[in-house]
Amino acid sequence: MEYLSLHTKVRRLGYLKLLVKQYFHNDYWSYHSLSKYFERIASDGQIQKELDDYNSFYSKDKKGVIENLGTGVSAEPYIRLAEDLSLIARSNYSYILTKTGKIYKVILERYEKESSKFKFIEEQRVTKQLDIFGLNMHSNLFALNPLDKFFFLRLLIEKDLIYLYSLLNIIRKSEKIYLRRHEIKYGHIKENLLSEVLLKIQSFETSPKVTHTTRINAIELKKKIAKKNLKMRSYESIVEPRINWLLDLDLIDGLKLRNGILTLTHAGDVLLDATTNIFDINLFLENDFLGVFNSLYDLNAKYKADQQNRIKKYLDYAFINFKTLAPNRISASQAITYISLMCFLREGFILEYKDVKSYIFAIDGKGYTIDWFPSENDGSIKKINE
Fold it and tell me: How far apart are CA 311 and CA 346, in angstroms?
């Protein structure tokens, strides 16, 4: 159980996408030079125009802009966020992509080369709206498509569920309070956020569904958050970035937000309901997340049985895309996530992580050797030379 400690600047998730794209042709970036380099890339005139269009045509926001100060200071908060979300990691004085970051990079690069083959990456409703303006949703960095939303939402649930859920719940409650009034709700959120967060943590403490370790972690987390927030005079760094993430993920209504009114979208309502009774985050991400994600954005992917051939096809691709120093051996969790997502985005059917994992375990000794370590919830897959 975790939560993110944030800089108030980190409001646009699209910049994280741009950061991952810098690894299309480089496996690593110097720890000392990445922020300065990325600041220059992110402040390019075309990127700034896309941010302006995002604000004008998508009814979104352009706060959190990266400016070219020549020092890297403007980009540094986003790099720290990418590190905290486990998209990148430090290694030998360099920043490299993590296992998750590599999956995102591999699929993102493939999508940009052959987007027409990704059957369920399009959101038809949004696409039709943008056609009115002659805009292409693929061309705007900040207009997140289902691939982007999958990774960012999954990481936020994993790393920041306490605050994510609490904000969604406060917004729903405040909708009832201000149903007949048109008042700015930020004040209401800031006044009630701490109590809502502590209430959510308390549910982890008292639920019979949680493990002893989770209960102990919840108690320690409550002490940590209470101590920190009691000393803070401003909630800006807590609320503002997260509200903007909800906006980027289409979980709150952008048009109403322009008038200072926070309202959940259909996707926000679905996510709140789906996360209300989560007491094991990993179990939710492995067993239910893809189905919930499909419902959030009305993507209409289907559950289909007997997909072994497609799983095998993408397993073979995984061995090509995620090579390690060990011959014919790849990370099991990386391969499983990749297969699950490619079947969803390219083939249009839902295979949860657990379903692919079951298939992987079933082929142990049948052309592959599976080593799994429960304590790490990961392992390796080795292809046996025939």
Answer: 12
